[in-house]
Specification:
- The chain is mainly alpha-helical.
- The N and C termini lie far apart (56 Å).
- 48% of the residues lie in helices and 0% in strands.
- The protein is globular.
């Protein structure tokens, strides 16, 4: 709290009416820019080439700020080079969930990225980060070609070993809680020599597989085949027939980049999303 507020609070306590403060408590105060004014790249919608990151976007926490700075910097560099931006999917990184929540929902209090916000948290693990993200890193110039090839080799080894174990009818055993990859060695004399980081991921993939399938099935039921549809920046929501003034205001304020983003705007009804889909289809057919 500001110094004057701290002093007023202290002097409201009986016996401390005339207290003096030698050093006020630590405090951080800052204003923020509503993150719904940003594209998914963290570029501002009103000023091309201006990117926002960190507490300016209403977040709290070093990790949140670091990821935003990384992605804003990457996309600023890609824009200068005239290359396609990098926008990660929610299934690829917890940080992508952070950005998606910010630009589609906005914030009304300091935002922290909790893993519970991620519907794909079972697959967003530290151990498989390179398999999810290294190709993106190579594309934007942050990962060497050699490192990317090494990851591709390890990913192929994981896939091949899971397939071999299934053919050998050992995969079902490995999925049991009490069984480890190492403990199956006596029943698996033909197993190849693999790096420990590969066998560790094989074991995790095997044990998580059933839970991941259940989670994906549940998410698919909640999703929609039209969610990936792009909404052009020039699209005028006010021209959508039947859309209420309130819905138009929400859409114009947020300017979602995809139907999925539009669907997640607080207060936007399924009926409004359906009308938006009809309008987008008509515009596509008219081109």
């Amino acid at each position: 709290m500001p110094a004057e507020v701290q002093l007023e609070f202290l002097r409201s306590i009986p016996g401390l009416e005339d207290v003096r403060v030698a050093r006020y408590g630590y405090a951080v105060e800052y204003d923020y820019s509503p993150p719904t004014q940003l594209h998914a790249t963290l570029e501002t919608k009103r000023v091309r080439g201006l990117f926002f990151a960190g507490q300016l976007n209403g977040t709290s926490g070093y990790e949140e700020a670091a990821f935003q700075g990384l992605m804003a910097g990457i996309n600023a560099g890609l824009q200068v080079k005239g290359e396609a931006p990098l926008v990660l999917g929610r299934h690829e990184a917890h940080g992508a969930v952070l950005l998606d929540e910010l630009v589609t929902r906005g914030v009304d209090e300091p935002f922290r990225m909790l893993t519970s916000r991620s519907e794909h948290r079972l697959v967003l693990r530290e151990g498989n980060a390179e398999y999810r993200l290294r190709a993106h890193g190579a594309r934007v110039g942050l990962v060497s070609a050699e490192a990317a090839r090494e990851t591709e080799v390890r990913a192929a080894q994981i896939r091949d070993e899971l397939s071999r174990l299934e053919s050998a009818r050992l995969l079902t055993k490995l999925r049991r809680t009490e069984v480890t990859y190492a403990s199956l060695a006596t029943e698996d004399p033909h197993r190849p020599a693999l790096p420990p980081e590969v066998t560790a991921e094989v074991e995790v993939e095997a044990k998580y597989a059933g839970y991941v399938r259940q989670a994906n099935a549940a998410w698919t039921r909640k999703g929609d085949v039209h969610d990936a549809w792009q909404i052009p920046e020039s699209f005028r929501f006010s021209t959508v027939r039947g859309l209420s003034a309130e819905a138009v205001e929400k859409l114009e304020r947020t300017r979602p980049g995809t139907v999925r983003h539009a669907r997640r705007i607080p207060g936007l009804t399924p009926a409004a999303v359906s009308l938006l889909l009809v309008a987008l289809r008509r515009e596509t057919e008219a081109r």
